[in-house]
Design a protein that fits this description.
heterodimer; A: alpha+beta; PH-domain like; 2 domains; 14 strands; B: alpha/beta; 5-stranded mixed beta sheet; 18 helices; 12% strand; protein phosphatase binding (chain A)
Chain lengths: 541, 556
């Protein structure tokens, strides 16, 4: 396919109005295969560039001999372009519409992006699963690294290697995989050394109306308990309601029966997913962008969006899983139906709560890579559109954004305990929806291999870990907190993530400026002084 | 308090100041030592609950309503007369005024190494503002509080207005609270002037002297031909006030003025609103539809209106280059909120710890915000319609600003909470009485300790580590509901489930940062010193740490 076929016009005279206060940028607007760029006259030193993939919806209006295009971006920014000439406006709009909705992965921008200072292949050496296994192996020998999914035949959405109980052989895994939706058999998500327990995730068992059983699947979960601390029991956290889980039997799914899995107790914690979550997100963004709305109803409108209720449910379910391990010494298996959305939300948040290493800059990147990207969260489907698009398919859901929001809440409640700041969370949100990097491309490792993402694109992690980015991404106040972080999930403890959802309405003091001042205070001390910074760890809660 | 229900026998010791409960058995329920430390001043109402016939656990005892968003409920045994005795003792010392006893501040013998009464000196503060100048003069006409008994002794008025003029103007302003200067802009010399409503009445009375006086004020600023008047009230209330002899400045009487109403409601509306906040946060937080419940209290909406009003005042003075006159009805509630918040936005001096103390001392205490009536210090009449959380609302607005500008204020959240705690505690004389004349009669500064003594002796505890001093920066907070939030750490602090996540380590880290920063600044100064001419050593002995009587402890 040739981009040129889709580009109706290459150039137009235009003016960019990004906000009510920012000065407008005037110049020549160009449409390329991947970008919209505006070069101010006379010299193109200060080029404005927009990745076309980040456009979520486009609205055109013509009046007289000029037109206005409103671009609502996936990162929730709203831009306005005033273009000279009616024809030019319509052509630019049509070109943007066509180019921003291209679905082909291999012609997407990451395959063309070649920034200075980065080498292809860098950071793709980073194998979080293998390195995580090394850590587990130091703590216990109950687990092994299995290559049973080497060719993705057992489970197309799992990576090539997974961590499984040592006592279970690959043949048993294969049979367990056939008993789980999409082949997602129970695998290790996190080993909690302090209590000698494990966090696992999977998809629902295929019990069906006939109440089928699978000996190998039962054996696998039995082996998990046997490998944990003596006497450990297990909790299965099902992210659906008991009724939904039961109903799933009609379509071949279901949930573990008590009799078949001795030692495991089932808990139902229904989390909203899919369409409902997306609708909540859309309503929230609408409410935040609605400047005409009478302000005395803002709070009840925010309430009715239910976004914060989803944050609360996600955090409290993660707390439940984490508590099961830390306080009750139990192993925990999390699944919903497919095990690719709310399941990952719960397991990744539970790790942040329990594991101090996952709260470091490197550890958090590893967590996202291992528990979201490699664990097969279908980013391409879920993040195809953001909150503005009218063309909505049923696959979109802001699950990953919900995760980032929950992490932001943790960071707000524990301002010293995360090594990264809001900047990193915002960056991950933006890149998950549209990015010059390949990290969030495709839906699974299998697809990424087919598209040769690892060899043909740059990794976001190498982009983010360049030293010039660090001040924006790191938390200047970080001190290692060795204990678990138990967030308060009361409604009055949760806040709207203003830095994201209200980014269009200019805050009184931009958080970047605040953090820059804090950085100055902190680094003044460090550079001025040979003495190490006093950094007492946070005491146990 | 729900937490304390069904507790074992306890011993109640009233040490005049505080309600101090010592539980003889340890409580598995509580992490910390089960000691309840409540200043008696905070008590608003004591009720007996249950009677001789009450059955069931915890149905018999005392219920204590506090002014700081909590209730304490003590279950007692019915035997003996323990409840009667306890009720009497508590009533006696919580409401000393009804028993001809002195308020605790007069008995408090604490010593601090700073004297908070020295913080505010009106002459110095006006000098800092560049006053007097050739447009404004300092007058002692109110030296004996004869012109206006609720104003301070020292006032700043237009140079061209004679003392006789002032006396005539006073007759036309509610409670003689004439327009006087609160603040002058250091560059454009526009001013914020405060007063009470004009006594227009139903017949639409006019007063030539008042009209002329406002014109004189207007003329001190030549940049804009109009004087802007902000009436803090809603338009209808201002009109309704005519029925009781008040009113507002009409166009035909006051040429060259522009009048705006700021729609801030009266003390009764604010009191009811706060009551609703308490209903949704205590003893249990209304969890389902929390935000909608919060909205229905209208508390944040009132905060928004107060902030919006103050922003308008500040903007008019700073960008509009127009002098403004602010009043409400009597000019001691909403007016104080507006002038002090506008001054906080305009003048970075007031954002320092001492500057803020001066601001409170000047705009609130000296100008006669009726603390005694609004808070009801030592008074048992809990349903008094004069009580209202106006000052709390002001502190809330300051907190909202400090949230929006995390580096602009020298003080931290604890500073604000400490001020609020001692607004009720009666441990210090700072907030006692309604006006300066009453305080002078009672010799408050001689006989009591100032709250600022406590604070200034422990300044480090109240410092914001991220404070970056900026001169001449005007702060315009966003007063949109989207950017306001409930001050959870204050209003919901008594809820054991809300206790903020590990506040101590955060503060500890902040303190470290502060210490390091001070170290850095000190070293820089040393370097500068050694670089400049070598002076003889000027080492001063470090001040000793604060000395407090052992039995009196603060909350923290």
């Amino acid at each position: 396919m040739e981009f040129s076929e889709l580009i109706r016009t290459r150039q137009a005279q235009a003016e960019l109005l990004s906000g009510p206060e920012a000065p407008a940028l005037r110049g020549t607007l160009c449409v390329t295969g991947h970008h919209l760029l505006l070069s101010p006259k006379p010299q193109a030193t200060d080029l404005w560039l927009l990745l076309l993939r980040s456009v979520d919806s486009i609205e055109k209006r013509v009046a007289g001999d000029s037109g206005t295009i409103t671009l609502r971006c996936k990162d929730l920014r709203v831009l306005q372009l005033r273009i000279e000439g009616v024809e030019a406006t319509l052509d630019v709009a049509r070109s943007i519409e066509a180019l921003s909705s291209l679905e082909s992965v291999i012609t997407s921008y990451p395959f063309f992006y070649r920034p200075k200072g980065l080498r292809l292949g860098d950071a793709w050496h980073f194998h979080p699963l293998e390195s995580y296994y090394k850590r587990v192996a130091l703590e216990t020998d109950a687990w092994r690294l299995s290559e049973v999914n080497e060719d993705f035949s057992l489970c197309p959405s799992y990576p090539r290697v997974v961590i499984v109980p040592r006592a279970v052989d690959d043949a048993a895994l294969a049979r367990s995989a056939r008993f789980r939706q999409g082949g997602r058999f129970p695998v290790l998500s996190y080993h909690h050394a302090r209590s000698g327990t494990a966090l696992l995730r999977s998809s629902q068992p295929l019990i069906g109306p006939k109440k089928l059983r699978c000996a190998e699947d039962e054996e696998l979960l039995g082996a998990v308990l046997a490998g944990a601390r003596p006497g450990a029991q297990g909790f299965i956290v099902d992210t659906r309601s008991a009724q939904t889980a039961k109903q799933a039997r009609m379509t071949g799914g279901g949930t573990e029966s008590k009799a078949a899995y001795p030692g495991w107790k089932r808990l139902h914690r229904p989390l909203e997913r899919g369409r409902h979550l997306q609708e909540s997100f859309v309503r929230l963004v609408e409410a935040c962008g609605d400047l005409e709305q009478s302000m005395d109803q803002w709070l009840s409108r925010l309430d009715s969006c239910r976004w914060l209720a989803h944050v609360q449910e996600a955090l409290s379910t993660a707390c439940l899983a984490a508590q099961g391990m830390e306080r009750e010494g139990a192993c925990v298996l999390v699944h919903g139906a497919e095990g690719m959305d709310s399941t990952l939300l719960v397991t990744s948040l539970a790790q942040l709560i329990l594991d101090p290493l996952s709260r470091t800059m490197a550890g958090f990147q590893e967590l996202v890579e291992r528990e979201w990207i490699q664990a097969g969260h279908p980013f391409q489907l879920r993040c195809a559109h953001s909150a503005f698009s009218h063309a909505r398919s049923k696959h979109e859901a802001p699950t990953f954004l919900l995760f980032l929001d929950c992490v932001w809440q943790l960071g707000r409640q524990f301002p010293l305990s995360l090594e990264f700041g809001e900047g990193l969370l915002l960056a991950l949100f933006e890149h998950a929806y549209a990015s010059p990097f390949g990290t969030f491309l495709c839906n699974s490792e299998k697809e990424r291999c087919l598209c040769e993402v690892r060899t043909q694109t740059h990794s976001l992690w190498s982009g983010l870990n360049q030293s010039k980015e660090q001040r924006k991404l790191r938390n200047p106040l970080y001190v290692l907190n060795p204990s678990a972080l138990w967030p308060s999930v009361e409604p009055q403890s949760l806040r709207l993530w203003q830095g994201l959802f209200l980014r269009q309405t200019r805050p009184p003091e931009r958080s970047e400026e605040v953090w820059e001042k804090v950085w100055q205070i902190v680094t003044d001390e460090k550079t001025e002084d040979s003495r190490p910074v006093v950094s007492a760890p946070e005491p146990q809660p | 308090m729900s937490l304390l229900r069904g507790l074992p026998e306890m011993e109640l010791i009233v040490i005049l100041v505080r309600l101090f409960l010592d539980f003889q058995e340890k409580l598995a329920l509580l992490d910390s030592a089960p000691i309840l430390d409540v200043p008696l001043g905070v008590i608003s109402r004591i009720e007996k609950m249950g009677g001789a016939t009450s059955r069931g656990e915890n149905s018999y005892g005392l219920d204590i309503t506090c002014k700081d968003m909590r209730n304490l409920r003590f279950a007692l045994k019915q035997e003996g007369h323990s409840r009667r005795d306890m009720f009497e003792i508590l009533t006696r010392y919580a409401f000393p005024l009804a028993h001809s006893l002195p308020i605790f501040a007069f008995l408090n013998e604490e010593r601090f190494n700073m004297d908070g009464w020295m913080v505010y000196n009106p002459v110095e503060e006006y000098r800092r503002q560049g006053l007097p100048n050739h447009h404004w003069r300092i007058t002692f006409i109110n030296k004996c509080y004869e012109l206006c008994d609720t104003y301070p002794a020292l006032l700043v008025v237009p140079f061209r207005a004679t003392d006789e003029d002032l006396k005539r103007v006073a007759t036309f302003r509610s409670r003689n609270r004439i327009p006087v200067l609160s603040w002058i802009h250091p560059e454009n010399k526009t001013v914020i002037v405060r007063c009470s409503q004009p006594l227009v009445g139903m017949s639409g009375k006019r007063n030539k002297d008042d009209e002329k006086y406002l014109d004189v004020i207007r003329e001190t600023n030549r940049q804009i031909s109009k004087l802007t008047i902000y009436d803090a009230r809603p338009n209808v209330n201002a009109v309704a006030n005519k029925a009781t002899g008040g009113g507002y400045e009409s166009d035909d009487a006051y040429h060259n003025t522009e009048l705006f109403f700021l729609d801030i409601h009266n003390i009764h509306v604010m009191r009811e609103s706060l009551k609703k906040v308490k209903d949704i946060v205590y003893p249990n937080v209304e969890e389902s539809h929390w935000l909608s419940s919060l909205e229905s209290t209208h508390w944040l909406e009132h905060i928004k209106l107060v902030l919006t009003g103050a922003i308008q005042v500040a903007d008019k003075v700073s960008s509009g280059k127009s002098s403004v006159l602010v009043h409400c009805s009597d000019g001691w509630d909403r007016t104080a909120q507006l002038t002090s918040l506008a001054m906080l936005m305009l003048d970075s001096f007031y954002r320092s710890i001492e500057g803020f103390e001066i601001l409170v001392q000047k705009e609130w205490i000296s100008f006669g915000h009726k603390f005694a009536s609004r808070i009801g210090h030592g008074d048992k009449n809990h349903a008094d319609a004069d009580r209202s959380p106006i000052f709390l609302q002001f502190i809330d607005c300051v907190w909202q600003m400090s949230k929006q500008f995390p580096t602009a204020f020298e003080f931290n959240e604890r500073f604000l909470i400490t001020i609020l705690d001692h607004l009720y505690s009666c441990r210090f004389g700072t907030f006692l009485y309604n006006c300066e004349s009453a305080r002078e009669r009672q010799k408050v500064t001689e006989r009591t300790v100032s709250l600022w003594s406590l604070i200034n002796s422990n300044k480090d505890t109240f410092r914001n580590p991220f404070y970056t001093k900026e001169i001449n920066r005007v702060l315009y907070p966003v007063a949109s509901m989207r950017h306001l939030e409930l001050w959870v750490n204050y209003y919901i602090r008594w809820n054991p489930r809300i206790k903020q996540q590990q506040p101590n380590p955060v503060e500890q880290r902040y303190m470290e940062l502060l210490a390091l920063r001070d170290e850095y600044i000190k070293r820089l100064e040393e370097l500068q010193l050694t670089n400049s001419a070598k002076l003889s050593d000027s080492s001063t002995s470090p001040s000793s740490p604060s000395q407090m009587l052992p039995h009196v402890q603060t909350h923290f």
